[in-house]
Amino acid sequence: MDRDTFACATKFFRDYSGQPRGASCQPHNHVDYIEKPDTFTYADFFKDYLIPNDPCVFSAKFTEGWGSRRKWVTPDGKPNFDYLLRTFGEAVVPVANCDVKEYNSNPKEHLKLKEYISYWKEHIKKNYRSPRGCLYLKDWHLHRTFPEQDVYTIPIYFSSDWLNEYWDAIKVDDYRFVYMGPKGSWTPFHADVFRSYSWSANICGKKKWLIFPPGQEENLRDRHGHLPFDITSPELKKSSVYPRYAQSTAPVEIIQEAGEIVFIPSGWHHQVYNLEDTISINHNWVNGCNAAIMWSFLQDELAAVQREIREWRETMEDWHLQCQVLMKSYTGIDYKEFYNFLKIIAENRIFVLENHHSEEEASKHCYRAAISGLGMLHAVFDLKRTAKVLTSLNANEDFKKLNPESFTPPPHALLHRLKAAIDTALL
Fold this sequence. Notes:
The protein is of the alpha+beta class. The protein folds into 2 domains: 26-212 and 256-284, Jelly Rolls (Sandwich); 291-425, no CATH class. Helix content is 38%, strand content 17%. It has helices spanning 3-13, 42-50, 67-71, 81-88, 113-125, 142-145, 162-170, 291-308, 319-331, 335-354, 359-363, 366-374, 376-395, 397-400, 411-425, and strands at residues 32-34, 56-58, 92-97, 108-112, 135-140, 176-181, 186-190, 197-204, 207-212, 252-256, 261-264, 269-274, 278-285. The strands form 2 sheets. The chain has a 9-stranded mixed beta sheet. A 4-stranded antiparallel beta sheet has the order 7-12-9-10, with no helix packed on it. Helix 2 links the parallel strand 1 (32-34) and strand 2. Helix 1 runs parallel beside helix 13 and helix 10 runs antiparallel to helix 13. 39% of the residues are buried. It catalyses: L-lysyl-[protein] + 2-oxoglutarate + O2 = 4-hydroxy-L-lysyl-[protein] + succinate + CO2. This is Jumonji domain-containing protein 4. It holds the Pfam family Cupin_8. Residues 143-302 form the JmjC domain. Belongs to the JMJD6 family.
């Protein structure tokens, strides 16, 4: 991060509330297309897309060197089933049935990849019809299972990835996924986990994205406040069920070709279709620009849980702890883990600032190396954003009920340390 970008980011976030933003929540009918890697810098992406929280599409030139684009695709641009079977055939993968609605998603089963590819081949032969329905391989943690495979290289624009940095540190989970599906497979209307960013690269095939800037989805809620499963359903035109649909605007449409990467910002709801047999790689990620959005989302999620079980508040001795347990079961994280998340992010950046002359030490840790590569001012920016969110967390009444002074280190000590690191770095 250069000084100009640091100054721009500091100015923008000085009074920023933490709510999702994008296109000023107004109708938005254009998505920028980034053509050339050699003329588009990290600073360009940071200032023009991360800070304003606007989407963009990267051309296929950004993925030309990926192993998956060479090996996973046949010369005529189709999925290379033979290679996938040889390399990953015995892997167990999650598969969703796009023809069935279960609550507000599709039901999933687990199959071996070789079984799924057998289905897929048969599905193609029968003109994309099957008594089993339209099955879509979704959310496969391939990177976690096959870390040594030459699949892809994360573009520098997405390298400040706090979400995967944290989950890699505790070796529990990750938010890197592979999707594979036949023409006609699709993903229902949603916003991404924790209101994170996502980037999605098509290895082969073509997708259609229907996306809405933050706030626009409010007109799509039914009379009970629920969002639709499918925004193309004729049901939405029934004013007795969807009273505000007439006020909604058309979604922004993106047609994503093979090799292209789509960047979806925080809080942008979307629905996605595979227009051809398609393979894609997706990451969810959080950084200093949207960590406050994640924190706002978690507060909203806890408030929803508290409303759901408020009738037991007076009779349940550990009611506030049970609310945290329920929130974690719904979202995958609670307030204590969110504190640990911020702690890991802060400690890695403090290390880089305190050891910035020791490239050898940083290189032993891939995320610290990535932080070093983005520059000292980026580490400072990250710490400033972490301090802002941690200060808000520490003042939160529900967090105080968790006895945070028993955490290691206590929040006030971590805040003192990271503020000292910022002050020292800016001397």
